[in-house]
Write a structure and sequence with these properties.
The protein is mostly helical. The chain has a single domain (54-59, 67-313), classed as MetI-like (MetI-like fold), CATH 1.10.3720.10. The chain is built from 15 helices and no strands. Helix 2 (27-57) crosses helix 14 and helix 13 packs antiparallel against helix 14 (282-290). The longest helix is centred in the N-terminal third of the chain and has 33 residues, at 83-115.
């Protein structure tokens, strides 16, 4: 018996709904549009100046002149025989290595303290970020007063405590100026590294920590055999950021010492500014600024690969 008209209408397939496609349905186009502002920013404000710096480093261009003469590797060869460049390169490596060792030791120690439960922990964590959030110009002005030859808080404190046999002229002696610069670098980078280590500690499985405690492992055994091996990928990322930031930093050295005394605290960034901008030799200044770039790229790639292997191994 054939079904009636009403049954046929019920059994008939529904009419296809032709929904209008919107931009949200086109994921590839939407992703491109969302990334376009960031890509434009990187290309215009980072990529173009970087390409121009590379071009200038192989030229004899000077400020105030439109002449562009190809110089090849002449600027780099000149730097290899420049004692002032050798000192700036040594200072850059010294500041970078010493400050990062101190930063990571302090960051790991502070992260373990802040990971414990105590009253006011959130307030302390918020205050920890103040050195990183403070404008570098304002912070450097404060440190200039702290290390001032007459009003130095450090000198007066040591004198009151009876620990200062003679007055310290922090920005008048190369050794003391180096200590002051490294101190400010550590003060600035320490909060950032601590936050990264804290984030890494939050993902360590709680059962692993509890198992170490149950097995009778002390603090240092847990630190070197449990926490640090599992924190190695995070610590490596923090070190990469710190190394790149310290090696390319211009503001701290220039605002504190301007490369003095007697050009003894110049780093590559300040020397590039002195040669390229103040000295009007754009080609040589660009060569100084780019000299450490291959080393930093290789170091970053190696460290990130080590971090990746450690992450896979854990």
């Amino acid at each position: 018996m054939a079904p009636g008209p009403q049954a046929q209408a019920t059994l008939a397939p529904p009419a296809p709904a032709f929904a209008r496609r919107t931009l949200a349905d086109r994921e590839s186009v939407l992703g491109t549009l969302m990334l376009a502002p960031a890509l434009a920013y990187v290309i215009l404000l980072v990529g173009v100046p970087f390409a121009l710096a590379i071009l200038l480093s192989f030229s004899s261009a000077t400020a105030g002149s439109l002449d562009f003469t190809w110089a090849g590797l002449r600027n780099f060869a000149k730097l290899l025989g420049d004692p002032q460049f050798h000192r700036a390169l040594g200072n850059t490596l010294r500041f970078m290595l010493v400050s990062q060792v101190l930063v990571m030791v302090l960051a790991v120690s502070a992260a373990h303290v802040l990971d414990a439960a105590f009253v006011g922990k959130r307030v302390v964590r918020s205050l920890l970020l103040l050195p990183w959030a403070a404008p570098v110009a304002l912070a450097s002005m404060a440190w200039v007063w702290i290390f001032d030859s007459t009003f130095s808080v450090v000198n007066w404190t040591l004198k009151v405590l009876g620990l200062l046999p003679g007055w310290l002229y922090w920005f008048g002696e190369p050794g003391l100026a180096t200590v002051a610069i490294i101190t400010v670098h550590v003060w600035r980078m320490f909060p950032f590294a601590t936050v990264i280590v804290l984030a890494g500690m939050s993902v360590i499985p709680q059962d692993v920590r509890e198992a170490a405690v149950v097995d009778g492992a002390g603090f240092f055994r847990r630190l070197f055999h449990v926490n640090l091996p599992m924190l190695l990928p995070v610590v490596t990322v923090a070190v990469v950021f710190g190394v790149v930031f310290t090696a390319t930093d211009f503001s701290v050295v220039w605002l504190l010492t301007r490369g003095g005394p007697y050009n003894s605290t110049h780093v590559l960034a300040t020397l590039a500014f002195q040669r390229g901008i103040l000295g009007a030799n754009l080609g040589e200044g660009a060569a100084v600024a780019l000299f450490l770039l291959p080393v930093l790229l290789v170091a970053a790639v190696v460290m990130l690969r080590l971090a990746r292997r450690a992450e896979v191994g854990t």
